[in-house]
Amino acid sequence: MTLPSSGSLSYNTIRAEFGSPSTNVYLSLYYRGGPYTYALPQNNNITTSSTGTISVSNFYGASNKGPFMQFSGGTYNSGGKAPIVYYGAGGPSLPSVADSSLTIGGTGYSVSKFYAIGGSMFISGTPSANVTSAPTWSQRNFYAYNSSGSLAFHFRTGWAAGRGQMLIGIGTTTNQTPRTNSPVAPAWMYESNGVYPSGSLGLYTDYFLSTAGNSSPPSPQPVPSFVTGSAATLAQYLVVKAN
Amino acid sequence: MDLSEYTKKIEILPEKVRYRDDDTGEDKEGNEVCITWKHNYLPVSELKFYLRENHDEFEHKINSREQEILEIWMKELKYDSRYFVVEDKKIKEVGKIEDDNQIQNWLHPNSQTVVPITKAEEI
Fold first, then answer.
1. Least confident window among A23-27, A130-134, B74-78
2. Residues of A in contact with B61 (CB under 8 A)
3. Do B55 and A67 touch (CB under 8 A)?
4. How far apart are CA B99 and CA B91, in angstroms?
5. What is the ipTM metric for this complex?
6. Does B13 reside within a domain?
7. CA-CA 20 to 30 A from A119: which of A99, B27, B111, B123?
8. How many separate domains does chain B show?
């Protein structure tokens, strides 16, 4: 949710949207890049310093932290003869995700893993509700902004995202879509390209299914890719939003 | 130490607040609520959080604030956050073995209670 872009904007309206532990409303609590406000394009009007001039008019159209995830990504090189280099958070020997809540296509997720290897992206988390239609993930855009609010990378999933199978335990899979029965799926796993021998686990990647297509032409369908940036750009402070 | 015996009070504030519904793009009005955490018997602060009712992230933000409050209370009770953490609303010592099962699992990771006995003839 965001604040209205016009009309009256009270202090309480700002507090109610961003949240506050304080009875008195301090606008300085909400400076951009601070504990309550991410450095995102829609918050560009808000000053970046708690000591700078901040006013109610800065907050028209501003957005709270809610729908976005945040982490300070790292790098991990597995070593050996065929090293795998991981970038991001939640993966092997990588930092954990700091703010795990991310809204993807109207569904809230608690994302625990968000990392890349080469051109492959891995996302894993727990949805707050069942994912009831494939297009929720299909050709979904993930934008990540660094600490100064600049775009670090833009990753787009392929056509098949959300149409493959979901790993719910080693050797056990269930369909990703649609899932309307209870309980809510305990975990969600997205893999853009196969790096591991995932076939033995019964998990089909977005790339595999997109190139294979299905009965709906055209085939192959759009495949997942980094539109801008690369795996290495995940190794920094990032705020991620899904459009 | 168990911190779970507290009262959480939700009060709707009289002044209406505005927000934009991202699904419809419409500007709407809603209620702001004040949530107050008060421990039933421990000498710790009464702490609050303000947020809009029916906020998309209501539950997540309240849970985050609740965890933050429990950690504030832990510090008010003079526990050092370098050695203690709050887990499941309890103050726990970092790395402390509290359960004999933890020791047994470490000593016998494949004990008979974990891995069932298989008869030799069946292999």
1. A130-134
2. 19, 66
3. no
4. 15
5. 0.75
6. yes
7. A99
8. 1
